[in-house]
Amino acid sequence: MPKKEQYPEITFGAIWSNLYDVDCSNVAKAKNKLSYLPWNEAWALLMNHYPEATFAFLDNETYLDGTVSVVCQVEIHGLTRQMWLPCMNYANKTITNPSSRDISDNKMRCLVKTIAMFGLGFHIYQGKTQPEDMIDDVITEEVYSKKTKPSPAPALPKPIEPKEDKDDEPHLKWTPEGAQYWVDQMIAVAKKMMKSPDDLRSQWQANKKVIDFLTTFHPSAYASLKDQFTALSKSLKKEETNE
Questions:
Q1: How far is CA 169 from CA 174, 211, 223, 242, in A?
Q2: Angle, in degrees to the nearest 10, between helices 219-242 and 208-217
Q3: Same structural domain for residues 85 and 179?
Q4: DSSP-based three-state secondary structure for 35
Q5: Are residues 188 and 243 in the same domain?
Q6: Are 98 and 140 in the same domain?
């Protein structure tokens, strides 16, 4: 595998500039009103620009309710991105105790999501909710091209935000300290308001957009949030059992 030192011109910014402008509309598909890029097409497009790229899957993350998240890493000339994805069914609902086939399918979906973090197909995600989360390719509907204005995205629950931020997406400007502040605020709300593990899961899903951002750009804050949520969930589950 060529190392970054051998290609000093290879940077995250250079890769993004090369891949973001790639028009994927001729190979993208759509289902349930969501556009997505099949994994084989995404990899073929990536190979056209960076044939040295490699990918790997890290250890799965298993949660208390039996659901599982897969984690993928893509490397281009020594530069890596990681992304995770919960194992979901055809209706984009999380699967309890997923089978090996469920895990395999979702790994390839996660691969596409990780590639998009380098820029390829990222425009498909903008204004959409998890467009890569389609398994079957049988039903093909109208495909969204980045040259076509997308339909309005459904309203998302408003996440907890630092008080000083007034923009629609303040997390995009966060420093590591700002990210940890948000985590601390979210945990404080969870400890005060959440009464069961189901309440915690609902809070997590309501703030998923920001949490997805943390996984890539503020991994330390994400790890802190995950550890505290897991501990709190165990505590609440124990209280339910005692009752």
A1: 10, 13, 21, 41
A2: 130
A3: no
A4: strand
A5: yes
A6: yes
Q: Given the structure tokens 């250890």, which residue do they identify? A: 59
User: What is the number of structural domains in the chain?
Assistant: 2
The full DSSP string for 219-240 is: HHHHHHHHHHHHHHHHHHHHHH
Q: What is the pTM of this model?
A: 0.52
Q: Residues with Cβ < 8 Å from 54, sequence gap 6 or more?
A: 1, 74, 75
Amino acid identity, residue 68? V
Walk along the chain (243 residues) and give the pLDDT tens digit of each residue: 444 454 557 899 999 988 988 888 788 777 666 678 889 999 999 999 999 999 999 999 999 889 999 999 999 999 999 999 999 987 778 899 999 999 999 999 999 999 999 999 887 766 443 334 443 333 333 444 444 444 444 444 444 444 444 445 777 788 888 888 888 888 888 888 888 888 888 888 888 888 888 888 888 888 898 899 888 888 888 877 776
Token code pair at residue 3: 């190392």
d(CA 177, CA 98): 36
Domain range for 64 is 1-153
CA distances to 78, 211, 212, 231, 238 from 190, rounded to whole Å, are 39, 15, 18, 12, 16
- 3 and 109, same structural domain? yes
CB atoms closer than 10 angstroms to residue 190: 20
